[in-house]
Automatic annotation (TrEMBL):
SUPFAM superfamilies reported in the protein's UniProt record: S-adenosyl-L-methionine-dependent methyltransferases
GO biological process: methylation
Segments forming domain Methyltransferase type: 47-125
Lineage per the UniProt record: Bacteria, Pseudomonadati, Pseudomonadota, Alphaproteobacteria, Hyphomicrobiales
Gene3D superfamilies, per database record: Vaccinia Virus protein VP39
Organism: Rhizobium lusitanum
Keywords, ordered alphabetically: Methyltransferase, Transferase
Pfam families reported for this sequence: Methyltransf_11
Keyword Transferase: yes
MF annotations from Gene Ontology: S-adenosylmethionine-dependent methyltransferase activity
Stated name of the protein: SAM-dependent methyltransferase
Length: 258
């Protein structure tokens, strides 16, 4: 069953609420984009499923974008193609219509993962790319020490790497994607070396996991982190991260071949 919000969001997060400032905090990061570009190879036509505001869509190829949330479709910049109102589980395209397909930070929103992945495989001749987080690795981040409830929610929402590989037919490689220090795509781990940034409520709102925990948890998080930054205890524990060029967190790119 589709859990459709008023604005058409198909998943468990209401992007009618979250969507408003989302693209201010969630810009495609060039380092992460390069992993996607390389995995797409020479594909000329690319389907982007759960395309949102268009993050990571390569502009040098013919893109078809699919996005069920009206507020996310409305945020797509003018230079990108208009997104089609459709969901992963029922793609309105013939078999093998595209050279490649991609889905970034979206599979955890789908109502039926297996069906969505098999639909992506059906309409794609070449590689299918999924950018997601490995739920088993989320505790690597210092965020876990401050907001274990939020990390637990994240871990429950993200599908396992094994289930994504299986859903794509098994012939897939799971590649770690190191997160750069000045990552401009503000998912949780992106702030690993810039803890002050995540004190901004807007930064937390653009990471949908915070909308699944009681607001008091976000308030407690900000109070405790703010205190530890002020008295230096965060830096004593984690200060080395401030200059660490990359963080090996939970980010993974699954590349499936036909």
């Amino acid at each position: 069953m589709h859990n459709r919000h008023q604005d058409g969001s198909a998943g468990d997060a209401n992007y009618g609420v979250i969507g408003a400032g989302y693209s201010r905090y969630r810009q495609p990061d060039p380092h992460i984009a390069e992993f996607i570009r390389q995995a797409l190879g020479d594909a000329a036509t690319v389907l982007n499923v759960g395309a949102g505001a268009g993050s990571y869509e390569p502009v040098d190829r013919e893109i078809t974008a699919v996005e069920p949330s009206a507020s996310m479709r409305a945020q797509r910049p003018a230079h990108l193609p208009l997104a089609i109102d459709a969901a992963a589980e029922n793609l309105p395209f013939p078999d093998q219509a595209f050279d490649a397909a991609m889905a970034t930070f979206t599979v955890h929103q789908w109502s039926n993962l297996e069906r969505g992945l098999s639909e992506m495989r059906r309409v794609t001749r070449g590689p299918v790319l999924i950018l997601s987080c490995d739920p088993e690795l989320l505790e690597r981040s210092w965020l876990h020490a401050y907001a274990p409830e939020m990390i637990a929610v994240e871990a429950r929402r993200y599908p396992s790497m094994m289930s994504i590989v299986a859903g794509l037919g098994g012939n897939a490689e799971v590649r770690p994607v190191p997160i750069p220090l000045n990552c401009v795509d503000g998912f949780g781990e992106a702030y690993y070396g810039r803890p002050e940034r995540i004190l901004d409520p807007g930064a937390r709102l653009a990471n949908s996991a915070w909308s699944f925990v009681d607001p008091s948890i976000g308030e407690r998080f900000a109070a405790e982190l703010g205190r530890d930054l002020a008295d230096g205890s965060w830096d004593r524990r984690y200060g080395v991260l401030r200059t660490q060029p990359f963080f090996q967190g939970s980010l993974r790119l699954i590349v499936a071949r036909p």
